[in-house]
Amino acid sequence: MGLERAFADEPAFVPYLAAGDPSYEASLEYVEALARGGADVIELGLPFSEPIAEGKTIQNAIVRALEAGMTPDRFFEFVEDLDVDVPLVCMTYYNLIYQYGESEGPRPFVEKAAAVGIEGLVVPDLPGEEAGPLRTACDEFGLDLVFIVAPTTRGDRLERMLEQVSGYVYVQARLGVTGARENVDDATEESLARLSDWNVPKAVGFGIKTGDHAERIVSAGADGVIVGSALVDIVAEGHENGDAVGAVADRLEAKARELKEGALRGGPEQPQPERT
Amino acid sequence: MSTDDAYDPKFGEYGGQYVPEALMPAIEELTDAYQRYVLENEDGFMDEFRERLADFGGRPTPLQYADQLSARYDTDVYLKREDLLHGGAHKLNNALGQVLLAKYMGKERIIAETGAGQHGTATAMAAAHLDMPCEIYMGETDIARQRPNVFRMRINGSEVNPVTVGRGTLKEAISETMRDWATTVENTHYVIGSIVGPHPFPKMVRDFQAVISEEAREQVIEKTGGLPDSVLACAGGGSNTMGTFAHFVDNTDVDLYAVEAGGSSLQVDEEEGVAPNSATLSTGDEGVLHGARTKLLQDSDGQIMESHSVSSGLDYAGVGPELAHLVDEDRVTPVNVDDDIALEAFHRLSQDEGIIPALETAHAFGYLEEHHDEVGDSVIINVSGRGDKDLEIAIEETAKRDLDIAPDMSIFERVGGGGL
Fold it and tell me: Where are the coiled-coil regions (chain B) (predicted)?
């Protein structure tokens, strides 16, 4: 299992973009810009038609990507076409994983994901209760399965989840769906406190928009920050204004740098010892 | 009521709990509440539910012998009159049950989604009756075609939130309500309107709706001394269907027909991602949507198709996991009729029996018209709702067709109004 390594030396910046938004070619450049800007892991969204955990920003990105022809097979080509030296995680919904390939069940999807170099999966509509078959397939092909800890996850649920987590744990900063916010929620610190004894990197997502947010999240104890909507906003704005792909990519790179630097400011002066 | 385990989330391979982690604690809490209040009648919950169903809802509804249809089909046709329930549809059984349960659980706010508006209306009525604030999500397409129900929800004090994503129908409204719930889960109960969604909703909603078949069974035995040869119900998500079947499932000599919306065609346009029907049980494939593994209208990649029916209430790409299981077990026979046959049946039932049915219900009567030779000597058919809400769309859709059975409405043209 390998995603832990991305969090080993310094606070990690984990951006999200929907693959294929607003077009295959532009999206390749945008993801590569995030890598240049300092991404330590990149979460690539494989668009599903019913994204129940996403807010408006990412819903719209998913619609744009689907309309531009993104499919699971195109997604795997996309990953192969990317020129980045950063671990890639696929974030999608279970039906696409379940349906892929000739036989039903998650194995063919995971096998293909591993073959193209995906290192982990995040599946927002798959709680631990339903994750058994996917966990088995991920173990077989060496992928991490990243679980989301919500502000409502407590007690026994937390204990059970710890047994299933690998790679990193996605700490949901507040209740609700994805979307950039002006302020960081207090629920974040409470959630991080509940996980303080977990020996797995903790990456916080939902609502992080600026370098200052990233700094505050990391100084509150996170090992990394996950940022989606604030980046997708840049893609959407560029698309709506008809901006050149290169110009939008530059903005994404600059935003990535701001977020990465914020995360670094929130971290300790010295690199943390490597986790096992 | 059901006696099976509240903690078993599956019907064979179907069912389950495929939802964001943030919702899982609420779903666990709801499962406990379902076990204690619904299955074990803790604090007299079920007694109060039944009392309110009787006094507020108007239960029991009659089982009426349909003279004209029986003569027409040479078959004894019995109508379970859920259209006579308060609000004009079976939906109140579930809405009242869930809003009352939310109150017992100490929740402070109700949210719901609606397609045709009948579930939204029933939830709004139940929420007003039990003094709970309520917001309803409804696709903008459905708002446009179901104005009377939107007005009824507003009159009863509920907010109606238009959903503009996608095609603006039930599928999008469910997704949007789940997003609200993920934000407000700590004080809010989501009243799911059918036997869909994550466990325990499919079982719990079935149990609230099972009062239909519980009564129908007693009534038909009282009237005829035995059980019918067949039971027919229209099927969208499937709450009316399972409610009508529940107490007959164990009697395997009673044939159960789930009548789906064949729409304009059973063929799909995979390129466009559109199924011009809502016949999920007949044509769908297994997959995961809105919290459950079930049969779905989806393309080969697993993207959910846009569905279609002349009836908003059947216009959904999924179906309850229990129905999917019973179809696989050959206990329930999935059949379908198209928009034209449903519309004809809408007029026929109105003229022959003096009952204007919901367009959903009309599908079941359309099947009876086409296949009455196959249903045996006696049949119960559930009149799931009344058709007042559908009059605007019935006028519009009738005008598009050359239906012999449609009434001559040229009186409108003579006085300057629209005509059929």
Answer: none
Task: Determine the residue among A130, A174, A188, A206 to mutate to test chain B binding: the one whose Cβ has the most chain B Cβ atoms within 10 Å.
Answer: A130
ipTM score here?
A: 0.93
One-letter identity of residue B210: A
- Of A233-237, A258-262, B117-121, the range with the lowest mean pLDDT is B117-121
pLDDT value at B358 more than 50: yes
Same domain, B225 and B242: yes
For residue A87, count other CB atoms closer than 10 A to its CB: 22
Q: Please answer whether residues A18 and A47 qualify as being in contact, where contact means their C-beta atoms are separated by less than 8 angstroms.
A: yes
Over residues A130-144, the pLDDT tens digits come to 999 999 999 999 999
Q: Which CATH number covers residue B288? A: 3.40.50.1100
Average pLDDT of chain A, as a whole number: 93
Interface test with B, best of A48, A52, A54 (most B CBs within 10 A): A52
Q: What is the mean pLDDT of residues A208-231?
A: 95
Task: Note down the domain range covering B258.
Answer: 63-87+210-400
Contact B25 A104 (CB under 8 A): no
- Residues from chain B that touch A100, judged by Cβ atoms under 8 A, are 301-302
Prediction pTM value: 0.94
pLDDT at A94 over 80: yes
Buried b (16+ CB within 10 A) or exposed e, B328-352: beebbbbbbbbbbbbbbbbbbbbeb
Q: Which residues of B touch A (CB under 8 A)?
A: 9, 16-26, 28, 165-166, 171, 175, 178-179, 182-186, 273, 286-291, 296, 298, 300-304
d(CA A133, CA A15): 27
Query: Which residue in B278, B309, B378, B384 is the catalytic one?
Result: B384
Whether the predicted pLDDT of B1 surpasses 50 = no
Task: Give B313 to chain A, closest Cα distance, Å.
Answer: 19
Instruction: Identify the closest residue of chain A to B182 by CA–CA distance.
Output: A176
Let me know the angle formed at the C-alpha of B257 by B254 and B261, rounded to the nearest 5 degrees. Answer: 170
- Residue B2's pLDDT band, with cuts at 50, 70 and 90, is very low
Fold of A10-266: TIM Barrel (3.20.20)
